[in-house]
């Protein structure tokens, strides 16, 4: 299901005066596609991702996820949409260190007061190649494996879209490749929709489409293959 951003604006009123983080962003992340968002530090990439995922409210413009305009939702409906329709992956994994891989995957559902079926949790970890790491805690896993647990957790509610903010930023080259291969496979084999912020052209090269952000505006669009040569 597609995610659409229309004329999105975001202004922060910081101590040093107002900052325009997003300045009229219009784009569409089509179902079953992999988009990378690139741009200099401070160009608004994280703000774009947070607004598109409903984690932050834009100052102007609209975000539509699978036909639902986020601005039309009340707080309860928005919380539910964030939980059920959106997956989010962070640079530093955000796993709970005292919980096993399986417990981490099940956590968002448990926090929502629902039961997570053990077989489904196993299947989610198998989907990211960690069928044999179900009972391991984060410190017993490599960085790449931890990120794959985080991806399994983010996908567990079958969200319409997976947002990833520098998912390979804390990984070495080899484990980055494992995570990027996994993300690519989720799009190719499972028809997932992924939007990934990255400053790494090698990471962006696995995307179908690369959106370039400068000063809160989209200034260019490339294919992933072109991004690798920039
Ligand atoms: P990027 O992810 O491309 O580095 P960000 O989206 O983090 O860019 O930030 C875009 C701009 O908005 C920057 O100038 C940043 O300083 C500013 N900004 C981001 N978050 C806040 C905030 N919570 N309060 C004030 N300014 C912010
Ligand atoms: P953080 O590292 O931000 O402190 P936690 O380690 O507490 O986050 O939680 C890790 C993950 O557990 C979150 O990314 C989220 O998926 C899930 N989670 C945490 N708190 C909640 C909550 N109140 N509702 C739903 N999911 C939650």
From TrEMBL:
InterPro entries: AAA+_ATPase, ABC_transporter-like_ATP-bd, ABC_transporter-like_CS, ABC_transpr_LolD-like, MacB-like_ATP-bd, P-loop_NTPase. Residues 3-230 form the ABC transporter domain. Keywords: ATP-binding, Nucleotide-binding, Transport. It comes from the Bacteria. Pfam families: ABC_tran. One of its GO terms (molecular function) is ATP binding. PANTHER family: ABC TRANSPORTER RELATED, IMPORT ATP-BINDING PROTEIN. This is ABC transporter ATP-binding protein.
